[in-house]
Amino acid sequence: MRENASPATPVARQHRPNVLPLEGDIDLHVSPAVTESLNAMIKKKPARLVIDLSRATYIDSAGLAALILAMQEVEAYGGGFFLAGLQETLRSIFETSRLDGIFPIFQDVDAALAASESSAILARSCEAPVG
Q: Which of 5, 46, 53, 121 has a Cα at 20 to 30 A from 81?
């Protein structure tokens, strides 16, 4: 953990059950708790899962690995995995590691939810029988 850093805290919000807000540093010390929270959410197989990083201050390779694994699990069952609210420090980390091209990243949670809902509607309309 970086000096004077605050550990990340996964906090489930009841009014948005498919959104996982993270705060502080997402590093080796807290990534197991983040993984545990993600796994609990993934177990329910939501159509979409949004990770709110607007209050996260840093992410290291262990945190990135937790997000990558979660995204792979969600996509394996056909769900959508979205990141939202990256501040400049996190955005720079994702750009440097070229993960900004892998993860769908949105300005905020509302934009991620709206985009994922639009994608779901589009997917359903493409599956509709032609008659």
A: 5
Domains and CATH numbers, the chain: 9-127 (3.30.750.24)
Per-residue model confidence as pLDDT tens digits over 34-84 = 999 999 999 999 999 999 999 999 999 999 999 999 999 999 999 999 999
**DSSP-assigned states of every residue in 48-113:** EEEEEEEEEEEE-HHHHHHHHHHHHHHHHTT-EEEEE---HHHHHHHHHTTGGGTS-EESSHHHHH
The dihedrals phi and psi of 121, each to the nearest 5 degrees, come to -65, -45
pTM of the model: 0.80
Compute the distance between CA of residue 95 and CA of residue 107 in angstroms, rounded to an integer: 15
How many residues does the structure list for the chain? 131
**β pairing state of 9-10 and 19-26:** antiparallel
Judging by beta carbons within 10 Å of its beta carbon (0-12, 13-18, 19+), is residue 94 exposed, middle or buried? buried
Looking up tokens 């997000």, which residue turns up?
67
Distance in angstroms (rounded) separating the CA atoms of residues 49 and 105 = 12
